[in-house]
Amino acid sequence: MRFIVGTGPGGQGVYLVEGQKAWNLTALDSKVGHDLMGLISGAADLSELVARKDEGASYDLSAITPELPVAAPGKIICLGLNYVDHIKEGGYDVPTYPALFMRSMTSMIPAGAPMVRPSCSEQLDYEAELMVIIGKGGRHISEASALDHVFGYTLFNDGSVREYQRKTHQWTPGKNFDGTGPVGPVVVTPDELPTGAEGLKIESRVGSEILQSATTSDMLWSVARTISTISEYSTLEPGDYLAMGTPPGVGHAKTPQRWLRPGEVVEVEIEGIGICANPIVAEEDVRATEAAE
User: Fold this and answer.
1) CA-CA distance, 102 to 80, in Å (whole number)?
2) Which PANTHER family is this protein grouped with (predicted)?
């Protein structure tokens, strides 16, 4: 199944998506709630809702303004180095343990929302990534059972301010600027994709300019291995986000370097999931607009 959380002609809620049509499940049952946590927790009977979907109206998917699939995840954990060619272009050694870091909620935005280039640096980079949404929590999860803990897959653009990422051995500043991490819009359940979402084409682009192009089969740490590894040190909880790292082609490794510029629209696409598109805006323009309101 495919879902989008957002606001449209049918109101705000969780929409079931089929092709270019969407049905508001929240309007059918208030227990669904206003993000995916109602379905993840089992508060609402999904099979019953799917059978009843035609009791409500269908809407064009394009008419829905996306919101974050999970509004307040307990954790947002990201892999920094998970494609060999990306590791090499960054000048790093291939790790024997995944490079993990965390993102804050203020850095996260839904698909379609403006991605903010900060006023203190022009070095806003793009990173196309597969995003995993945890459905069933746990600790010390075996790799063999790890995929049973996945609710769905979506898209992520790990917007990185490279100048600040390089200021310290810790990547936290460069990875956590406000409004730099788009997620969504569509979440796809595992039954609609290859096991572990492997073998899917992953790409980023601005207009006709292809920035990155690879396949999720190139990941060093698979989804299952990543879940198992993280659960060694931390209890995974329903609704947690896990970002699976980016392939080669990022802007800081190009000659000349290629930063995202205000006025552009950056897209991340993964085969079988969809497209996450976001306009780039300058922070100073955002501030000017806010001051005028």
Assistant:
1) 10
2) FUMARYLACETOACETATE HYDROLASE DOMAIN-CONTAINING PROTEIN 2A, FUMARYLACETOACETATE HYDROLASE DOMAIN-CONTAINING PROTEIN 2A-RELATED
